[in-house]
Amino acid sequence: MMKTVGTPISRRLVLGAAITAAGLALSGCGGGATPSAGGDVELNFVFWGDANRAKVTEEALRIFEEKNPGIKVKTEYQDSGPYADKLATRFAGGNPPDVLAMANRSLLEYAQRGTLADLKSLKELDLGNVPDTVLSRGEVDGKLYGLATGVTTIGMVVNKTITDQAGVTIPDDKTWSWEDYAKFATEVTQKTGGKVYGAGYDVSTETGPIMLARQRGEDFYTKDNKLGVSEETIRDWFQYSVDLRKAGGYPPAGFFEQIGGSPAQSYLAKGTVASQIIPINNYKGYNDAVEGDVVLLRIPGETSGERRGYSADPTMLWSIAAKSKHPKEAAKLLDFLTNDADGAAHTLTQRGVPVNPEVAESITSKLSEDDKKFVDLMAGIQKDDLAPAYVYPKGASVVADTLKQLATEVEFGRVTPADAAKTFLEKSNAAINK
What we know:
434 residues; alpha+beta; D-Maltodextrin-Binding Protein, domain 2; five-stranded mixed sheet; three-stranded antiparallel sheet; 40% helix
């Protein structure tokens, strides 16, 4: 358990301290494990990410092994695309990882199958400094099956070098509406002679309509694990991109190809789009990849809607397999990933802002200016009166796939936004909790 320095920090998420506080002299979880009679315990730890994430994770794990003699950690990682299939195969084959990264949309399904351990039952895992709002995102029927690896949200990045050269003013992101963003994007395309499109966000990813639904007073997913978004909101989400494409602010159908998900592979880095919606913890990667001045902004519509669309979302969740042969050691690893400042000094904000506020404070002095900007934005957002957010229901993966498929149909004009919205609700509701 992390030692508390000075006055204990409350269980609400004090991310603002991660900006202003000096790095604290915090020690990690110590407490070596007792080796099993047959020698070292080997944990299988599986997650998704790129080579850089794997590198810093390995650096942190060497510290864990030093502090926990008798426990060795074997890691596996890969891109997020095939990760879900790999995980399903491992569980179906009766060979699940001990500790694993779990997608928000998959947690409930795995939990209801009885494949995950209740983290609250593991005394080796200290949850005392994790805010209740964060814990709630991994709770199912009063048990904790997933613990956020870190928190983040989505934001807009704009290549200011392009907009400055085009003579286009970026609107005030604290007050701009979706209409303001459309005007901005169209103006960029016009003033660059069509060489750069003003907008290049992904219509097929559910984070966009989730936020739009909240702004309209709807819960995309409800507290009782149902689909709560209206047909009108989904229709308008699709229609917005159609109208923006017609106006010239959004690229033509077929413009986007499968080029990979890293910032260096993005169209923002190519210089063919001026703005993009991203998980804000990836901001530094985009600023490094783009030859220009990339600014980080809030999503449009936050002050023109019925309520705020933002929430503090887990980038992913840590889970422990119910059939792990080493649950105590797995819990020690999860405790390290959550509460150890020495390990966090290597991983920093790779998986979002650390959920333990003390750990967040401890890494402040080590953050780049770009990472401080994203942490600062996260802190500012949480000062607002945010709408609640709930565990994704069983079948959320089908919902995400359906949105992706219909977005392509709308993009090429094979289906109208109205028909796509109707089909989306029909297929999604048929899949939810089935």
